[in-house]
Amino acid sequence: VQLQASGGGSVQAGGSLTLSCTASGSIATINDMGWYRQVRGPGRELVAVTFSSGRINYADSVKGRFTISRDNAKQRISLQMDRLKVEDTAYYYCYAGAYSGEYYWGQGTLVTVSS
Questions:
Q1: What b/e string do you get for 59-78 counting C-beta neighbours within 10 Å, with b at 16 or more?
Q2: Angle at 105 between CA 37 and CA 39, to 5 degrees
Q3: N vs C: which end of the chain shows fewer Cβ within 10 Å?
Q4: d(C-alpha 90, C-alpha 98), whole Å
Q5: What is the pLDDT of residue 28?
Q6: 3-class SS at 81?
Q7: Do the beta carbons of residue 27 and residue 75 sit within 8 Å?
Q8: What is the pLDDT of the chain when averaged over all its residues?
């Protein structure tokens, strides 16, 4: 599975950005897809995830502001980020989790929110 992320950039606090991630390869093996973010250091925070069952989870810090959507026909997920805060500044990574337990990662895309 290969993941190609797009979107990101710079915006002022209160603004909006959209991230997209398109999957190719063995798509049928994918269960969950979503976004992590990393500010600094080795740890990544799960931002939002959508499962093949339709279930969606969000980090508490983004609930009500971010919306993840999944288009199975286009093999793509999107993350609509509204009312962005300075603390949302991070590298965002798209990922896909296979039923086998394997994880695949897209390249990081930088989101910068200025005050």
A1: eeebeeebebebeeeebbbb
A2: 20
A3: C
A4: 25
A5: 82
A6: strand
A7: yes
A8: 94
pLDDT digits (tens, 9 = 90+) for 53-87: 999 999 999 999 999 999 888 889 999 999 999 99
Two tokens, residue 2: 């290969």
- What's the angle, vertex CA 69, arms to CA 16 and CA 67, rounded to 5? 40
Task: List the end-to-end C-alpha distance of the chain, in Å, as a whole number.
Answer: 37
Match 């993350």 to its residue by tokens: 79
Q: Which residues touch 34 (CB under 8 Å, ≥6 apart)?
A: 46, 47, 48, 49, 50, 68, 77, 94, 95
d(CA 71, CA 60): 24
Distance CA 82, CA 17 (A): 7
